TrEMBL record:
One of its GO terms (molecular function) is pyridoxal phosphate binding. This is 5-phosphohydroxy-L-lysine phospho-lyase-like. Belongs to the class-III pyridoxal-phosphate-dependent aminotransferase family. Coiled coil: none annotated. InterPro entries: Aminotrans_3 (IPR005814), Aminotrans_3_PPA_site (IPR049704), PyrdxlP-dep_Trfase (IPR015424), PyrdxlP-dep_Trfase_major (IPR015421), PyrdxlP-dep_Trfase_small (IPR015422). GO terms for cellular component: mitochondrion. Pfam families: Aminotran_3. Keywords: Lyase, Pyridoxal phosphate.
Length: 449
């Protein structure tokens, strides 16, 4: 039976009537109705093609034939829960283990990054028998209540900070407390965590975990300074806590040079828990927590079974295996290195011609362009960023979004099949774009998590 096709106006009217208004659309004043996609391209109901610079979830490209084939084949054969013995879950866990340090050898499969981060929080608190958590300022770790509590990006707009949550400065060397001219910003920022731990201890409390994205995304496409994570881990371990690396946004080769973004911090650093999600299933709901045998053993010892109805089911794991195959066969990590460097280089060239571009940063296909109204004061150009996003969509059919505490950073986390010509299309084609223009009102059209 063919599904009835609605006109865009009808779809929009039904969405406003039936879907919660807190579930926002891109380009809310004039939404794009996408009806199909392939690779790094989206197509609307009129067949118009848009370049997708947003969809980090569709990691190896929209509707990749190898992924859809694997999903359909397994769905036609069997899909059940993980209480039945099946090859796919153990084969997938074994493949993931091969990408991680040896000590991260136990896996729990779930359905979303939020579920993964919630479970990581439980694992840390069960293992340490402590409650308190240190997070980075402006962090976002998911939409569950437990994760809103450890996400300053969210809790500051809601009930506020809980007494067991402690916020460390974001290690942003562009506009943070220690900037690029600091001789050792990694240690300087890590020492703020040490100070925070001492403050927590003075209150008679204990740390269960330091919880952070390996590359803070909502915080503004931040690249952590070298040495930061290893030094923080040293301080956290000394306090009896564990280090949780949130790789939901950045894992699976997006940084190019490494499979996981935490590996950018050097071979001497290894988290105690790693969470992963968005890109795992290329759009299929699939996520995971990887941890040590010791931490997993403490979780088992509590005597309560952990069961997830859909986590690790045969179809999800077949898709996950297919994603890993495509990353390898199509050299998508190598592509991220080459195309990401080209995108950064072209963006830096734009920066040399436009004072409103204050900073260009990134690694692989994780790139941010920070817009400022004044380079000396680094004042966020929020309105201009919204204007650029709007113009790119309306005049050049390029989908880009913004991030950062002031929504002034153009972020690029496209599908990993993004090509050189796409980087050039984004940075070279919009020659008539007036980077100095400011809109009369702040637009929030470009935001995604």
């Amino acid at each position: 039976m063919e599904v009835e096709k609605l006109r865009k106006e009808e779809t929009l009217a039904m969405r406003k009537r039936l879907i919660g208004q807190s579930c926002r659309l891109f380009y809310s004043s004039d939404p794009v109705k996408i009806v199909r996609a392939r690779g790094q391209y989206l197509f609307d109901e009129n067949g118009m093609q848009y370049l997708d610079c947003i969809s980090n979830v569709h990691h190896v490209g929209h509707c990749h034939p190898s992924i859809t084939k694997a999903a359909a084949a397994q769905m036609d054969l069997l899909n059940t829960n993980t209480r039945f013995l099946h090859d796919n879950i153990v084969m997938y866990a074994d493949r993931l283990a091969a990408t991680l340090p040896d000590k991260l050898c136990v896996f729990y499969f779930v359905n979303s990054g939020s579920e993964a981060n919630d479970l990581a929080l439980r694992l840390a608190q069960q293992y340490t028998q402590h409650e308190d958590v240190i997070v980075l300022d402006h962090a976002y770790h998911g939409h569950l209540m437990s994760l809103i509590d450890i996400s300053p990006y969210k809790f500051r707009k809601l009930a506020g900070q809980k007494e067991w949550v402690h916020v460390a400065p974001l290690p942003d060397i562009y506009r943070g407390i220690y900037k690029e001219n600091n001789p050792d910003p990694g240690k300087a920022y890590a020492d703020t965590v040490k100070d925070l731990i001492e403050e927590v201890h003075r209150k008679g409390r204990k740390i269960s975990a330091f919880f952070a994205e390996s590359l803070p995304s909502v915080g503004g496409q931040i690249i952590l300074p070298q040495g930061y994570s290893a030094k923080v881990a040293e301080y956290v371990h000394a306090a009896g806590g564990v280090f949780v690396a949130d790789e939901v946004q950045t894992g699976f080769g997006r940084v190019g040079s490494h499979f996981w973004a935490f590996q950018l911090q050097g071979e001497d650093f290894c988290p105690d828990i790693v969470t992963m999600g968005k890109p795992m299933g290329n759009g299929h709901p699939l996520a995971c927590v990887a941890t040590t045998a010791e931490i997993a053993g403490a979780f088992t010892a509590n005597g309560v079974e952990y069961f997830n109805t859909f986590g690790g089911n045969p179809v999800s794991c077949a898709i996950g295996l297919a994603v890993l195959d495509v990353i390898e066969k199509e050299d998508l990590r190598g592509n991220a290195v080459r195309v990401g460097a080209h995108l950064k280089g072209l963006s830096t060239e734009l920066q040399s011609r436009h004072d409103i571009i204050g900073d260009v940063r990134g690694v692989g296909l994780f790139v941010g362009i920070e817009l400022v109204t004044n380079r000396e004061e680094r004042t966020p150009a929020t309105k201009t960023a919204a204007y650029v996003v709007k113009r790119l969509k309306e005049e050049y059919r390029i989908c880009v979004s913004t991030d950062g505490p002031w929504d002034n950073i153009l972020k690029f986390k496209p599908p990993m099949c993004f090509r050189m010509k796409d980087a050039e299309h984004v940075t070279l084609k919009p020659k008539t774009l007036n980077w100095k223009r400011k809109t009369s009102k702040t637009l929030s059209d470009g935001h995604i998590h």
